[in-house]
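Exercise: predict the fold of this chain.
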Amino acid sequence: MIAIIDYDAGNIKSVEKALIYLGQEAVITRDRDVIMSSDRVILPGVGAFGDAMNKIREYKLENVIYDVADAGKPFLGICLGLQLLFKTSEESPGATGLGLLDGEILRIPDKPGIKIPHIGWNNININKEKKLLSGIPDNSYVYFVHSYYLRAENREDVAASTFYSTDIDAAVEKGNIFACQFHPEKSSAVGLKILENFMAI
């Protein structure tokens, strides 16, 4: 069973639908016992960094997430769920994220001809040594919706990168923690393969 953490963020149902399409049992929940008894955990979401962390704390999910990480359970952050794994974001000065990974969440720089938020398909350069993107051809296209991006502190954590106004770390992987800035559940066959890889970890 896959637990999808419910903290009132947007885009949670689309993740559930993708998992069901893949034949997986998925449950949207904020119940600690359900989360801890699941095989894998996903933290999806669309929204603002600070508001999301406030909700995670309101629902007493912060320590649950730490316990999932400490237990070695495969954990996947998607979009905002990736950003929340880090300690700070330029989107919400003063707000403190989960701090499970090291890096910065920065605003995509304004440049002529570049629309922010970044909405649409973009190709990714893949680190073939990473499990989450195993079997995905380099320069595959995936679907993004974001105004803020990750610059990982540890380059060995980066599973995929892309370019949109600047170099963007599009996916990371460290131990049992995995995350994508893009939306695998909206990225057609490539995205479904990424979710299948996560199920196989």
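Check your answer against the key: Helices lie at 12-21, 32-37, 49-58, 62-70, 80-83, 188-200.
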